[in-house]
Amino acid sequence: VKEIKSHKSFFGKTSFFEHESTSTQTPMKFAVFCPPESVETKGGLIWLSGLTCNEENFITKAGAQKYLSELGLVLICPDTSPRGLDLENEHQDYDFGSGAGFYLDALTPAYSQHYRMHQYITEELYGIFNQKFSLKNNIGIFGHSMGGHGALVLALQHSNLFASVSAFSPIVNPCLAPWGKKAFSGYLGDDESLWAKWDTCELLKQGKKHPQEILISQGLADEFLEEQLLTKNFEEAAEQASQNHQVEYCEGYDHSYYFIASFVEQHLMHHARILSQVK
Amino acid sequence: VKEIKSHKSFFGKTSFFEHESTSTQTPMKFAVFCPPESVETKGGLIWLSGLTCNEENFITKAGAQKYLSELGLVLICPDTSPRGLDLENEHQDYDFGSGAGFYLDALTPAYSQHYRMHQYITEELYGIFNQKFSLKNNIGIFGHSMGGHGALVLALQHSNLFASVSAFSPIVNPCLAPWGKKAFSGYLGDDESLWAKWDTCELLKQGKKHPQEILISQGLADEFLEEQLLTKNFEEAAEQASQNHQVEYCEGYDHSYYFIASFVEQHLMHHARILSQVK
Fold it and tell me: How far apart are CA B92 and CA B112, in angstroms?
C-alpha cells in the first residue's frame, strides 16, 4: 500500500493511497481520514460512493473531517470500481462498468475476473483498514445512492463485520429499478434468482437482519426517488422483517453532495454512538 | 442574471448563476449561498478563489455553508477570470490568462478589453450582490492565494466598500514573487510603477489602511510560502503602517482546500463579528 499524497486537515490527516488488489487484479485507490493522535480512536467507517464517483468525492465535498476529528473515527473511502481495464462495454455508460461496480462479485464471463467489489471491500480493504488502524473489527459502513445500496447489502450480508450502518439516498430495491436491472444483467446475467442476494429489500425478506438501527436519509426533491431509489419498499420490507430502522425524509433536498454535507454530522453521530457502545 | 442550478443545503440554498458582464464583455458565472429565510441576514461575503479555480471550488470544498447558515451570512463566489475568449497566450499556462485574472484591470493591448476583474468585482458583482440581498454595503471580502491577494488589495483600495477582510495563504507582495511578476508584466506591462497599486505590501507603504483587523491564516507546510507568498513582508509592512492585523501560522498545513476547510469557521466568525457591529 503506497501513499500518494497527504494533507493535514482538522488537526488530523487526509491521505490518498494506491495498492495492487488481489480481488480485482488491478491497482485500486482509496482515501483515508485519520483523526489527530490526541483523540482516542472510537472505531472506523467505510464510505461507499455512488455512480460516477471515485475515492475523492466524499472526502473533498462532504465536510466530514471536522466531525470525524472530534468523534475519533477513522474513515476509508474506496473507489467505486476497478480501473485501467478495457472490458466489453466498460466505459460506454455512466451507470455500468467503470465508476459503477455496484459492490457485488460479477458472474458474467466479461466481468467476473475483475469486478469483485464485494470481495474487495469485505475482505481485502476491510483487512487492510482493520489492521492498519488496530480497529478490532469495530467498523461501520455507510454510503450514497449506489454506495448506499452497497452499505446496506454488505451490512446485512455481514452483520458480524459491520457494527453500524447508514445510507444517504440508497438504491434499496435494485431488482426493481432501471439502474439495478441494467447492472445486475450485465454483472450477474439473466437468471434473476441470482440477483436477490445483492438487493436490500430481498435480503430483508429472506430473513437477513442487522442488530443495530439502520439510518436512511432521503431528500424529497431527489430526482431519482420515484424511479430508482424506491425508499418506500425498504420501509415495508424493514417493517415486515422487524428490522430496527429510521428513514428520514428531508423536504427540499436533492441527490447531490449538498444534501450529504447537510446531514453528514447526524450520520457520523449515529455511527459514533453505536461504535462507542460496541467497543 | 440567470440561475443555472440550485441545491438546498444546510436549510439554505447553494445556487449557480450566469450573466453577461459589461466589465469583461463576456458571460460570467458565480455561485451563491443563501442562509435559510428564518435566519436574520447579518451581511454578505465575497470569496475570491486562487489560480486554476472557478466559481465552484470554494462552495463545494470549503464546508462553509454550515457556518454561513448559522451566522446569517450570504456568500458570493465569482469566477477567477473571463472565459470563452482566445487571447494571446491566454490558455497556455496555469498562472496566467484564464483561471488567473489576478483581480486587476489590465492595461496591455491584448488583455485590457476583457481582463477587468477589479472592475467586475468592485462595481458589477458588488452591485448585483448588494441589491439582490439588500445588504446595504455591509459586505466583507476574503480569498485564497491569488484570491487572498485580491481580497487584501480590493479591501485596501476600497475600505468604504468592504467592511471586513481576511485571507488564506495570500500572495501579499506580488511585485516580488514569480507569480505576480509574470501576471503584472502580462496584464500591466513592463513599467513597474504601474504595479504598486495591485500589491498589498506596496499599498500599505503608500498609506492605504483598513479600519478593521486584517486576519491572515498561513500554513507552515505550504509549498509556496517562501517563494510566492512572502507572508513576512506583510507583517513588516502592516507593523510599519500600524495596520491592525493578525497572522496565524498553522503548523503542518499546506496550500490546499483541506487547509481552508480546517479554518473556515474561524474566518467566518471574524467576518460575522465585524459585520454585526457595523450593522
Answer: 18
Q: By CB neighbour count within 10 A (0-12 exposed, 13-18 middle, 19+ buried), where does B30 fall?
A: buried
**Cβ neighbours, 10 Å, residue B274:** 22
Short-list B19, B234, B200, CA closest to B102: B200
Across the beta sheet with A73-78, the strand order is: A2-9, A12-20, A27-34, A73-78, A43-48, A139-144, A164-168, A214-219, A245-250
| Residue A8 to residue B65, Cβ atoms within 8 A | no
Q: Which helix (H) or strand (E) holds A236?
A: helix A231-240
Half-sphere exposure of B148 (CA within 13 A, CB side): 26
B72 with B35: CB under 8 angstroms? Answer: yes
Cα–Cα dist A23/A98, whole Å: 16
Interface test with A, best of B8, B14, B59, B222 (most A CBs within 10 A): B8
Q: What are phi and psi of A237, to 5 degrees?
A: -65, -40
Contact with chain A for residue B262, Cβ under 8 A: yes
Inter-chain residue contact B11 with A65, CB threshold 8 Å: no
The answer to whether B169 and B255 are in contact (CB under 8 A) is yes
Mapped onto helix, strand or coil, the DSSP state of residue B62 is coil
Contact across the interface for B8 and A63, Cβ inside 8 Å: no
According to DSSP, residue B242 is labeled: T
Burial class, A248, CB count within 10 angstroms (exposed 0-12 / middle 13-18 / buried 19+): exposed
DSSP secondary structure letter of residue B216: E
Which residue in A120, A258, A231, A251 sits closest to B5, CA to CA? A258
Q: What is the ipTM of this complex?
A: 0.94
Cell numbers describing residue B107:
492595461
Q: What is the pTM of this model?
A: 0.96
Digits of tens for pLDDT over chain A (279 positions)? Answer: 999 999 999 999 999 999 999 999 999 999 999 999 999 999 999 999 999 999 999 999 999 999 999 999 999 999 999 999 999 999 999 999 999 999 999 999 999 999 999 999 999 999 999 999 999 999 999 999 999 999 999 999 999 999 999 999 999 999 999 999 999 999 999 999 999 999 999 999 999 999 999 999 999 999 999 999 999 999 999 999 999 999 999 999 999 999 999 999 999 999 999 999 854
